[in-house]
């Protein structure tokens, strides 16, 4: 009996070592990043053929820093800057535009005017696009604040400006219902301008696809983290094997498989893409095998300290240029 118990405990510990996430991962609040990607995926379904860009970092001349834009949606008729507020509880809008969130499970939270903040991002993005040779027609770039949390309950919904999409409005959106969100699609470029519109959209998407973005981790369980990759931590031989994975050379890596023989190993497939985008399509692949206990040191957005993740918990990592 004791042999069976001990054997079961050993199997449990082995299983946990290989497949369970580390403590830092369990403590991580990736709540916001998960919401961003969930909203992005739904927008792609709602607006077929659209392009959705997540986690864009736009240089802001006024603050001499980069400003984060949650999502930019580009359809065949307009572009929309979207801020995602994944707040829960009873939410009310004050006269000054700020929000007050209250609920049973958290303290009252004051949120500075999300509409004013998002509107500011529109002007920053317009300036950036103009610097890169894309002059937007008047009214082409709009903005929205989406509240996708099912526990979001608006107090006096009519007190929220039309740019705010409450959860009740968000869940009602369906493909083809383009007028449901208070003029979401305005059709600025229409009729007789198909070729010009197509050329303009291609140029806009080209600029946005090469804009600075946040580094991102995709974790097991369909979870994401946005922020900045710092370095790997682990045995010296593993670090030596991973030495080629640096921002100047690598745009993405993915963890393919785990070997349970001897030490824990993860096979990491690294996809090299040229930083010179004129060489589009030139890809180079390389695989390295390292211990699955090797750590990724990553600085999440809005966090004061870096977090560590085992490679066995990572599905992929994308690095900005």
From TrEMBL:
All copies of domain NERD, residue ranges: 31-148
Entries under Pfam families matching the protein: NERD
Highest taxon of source: Eukaryota
Name listed for the protein in its UniProt record: NERD domain-containing protein
């Amino acid at each position: 009996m004791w042999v069976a118990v001990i054997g079961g405990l050993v199997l449990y510990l082995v299983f946990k070592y290989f497949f369970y996430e580390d403590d830092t991962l369990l403590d991580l609040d990736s709540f916001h990043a998960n919401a961003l990607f969930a909203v992005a995926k739904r927008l792609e379904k709602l607006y077929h053929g659209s392009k959705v860009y997540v986690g864009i970092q736009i240089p802001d001349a006024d603050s001499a820093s980069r400003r984060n834009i949650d999502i930019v949606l580009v359809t065949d008729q307009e572009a929309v800057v979207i801020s995602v507020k994944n707040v829960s509880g009873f939410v009310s809008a004050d006269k000054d535009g700020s929000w007050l969130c209250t609920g049973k499970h958290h303290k009252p939270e004051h949120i500075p005017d999300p509409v004013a903040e998002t509107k500011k991002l529109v002007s920053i993005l317009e300036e950036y696009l103009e610097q890169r040779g894309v002059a937007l027609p008047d009214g082409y770039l709009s903005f929205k604040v989406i509240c996708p949390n099912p526990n979001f309950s608006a107090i006096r919904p009519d007190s929220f400006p039309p740019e705010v999409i409450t959860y009740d409005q968000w869940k009602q959106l369906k493909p083809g219902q383009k007028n449901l969100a208070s003029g979401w699609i305005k059709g600025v470029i229409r009729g007789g301008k198909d070729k010009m519109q197509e050329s303009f959209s291609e140029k806009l998407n080209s600029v946005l696809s090469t804009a600075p973005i946040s580094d991102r981790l995709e974790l097991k369980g369909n979870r994401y983290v946005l922020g900045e990759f710092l370095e790997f931590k682990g045995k010296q031989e593993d670090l030596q094997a991973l030495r080629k994975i640096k921002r100047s050379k690598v745009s993405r890596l993915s963890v393919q498989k785990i070997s349970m023989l001897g030490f824990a190993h993860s096979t990491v497939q690294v996809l090299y893409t040229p930083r010179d985008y004129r060489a589009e399509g030139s890809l180079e692949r390389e695989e390295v095998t390292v211990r699955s206990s090797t750590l990724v040191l990553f600085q999440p957005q809005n966090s004061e300290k870096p977090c560590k993740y085992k490679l066995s918990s990572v599905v992929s990592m994308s690095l900005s240029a």
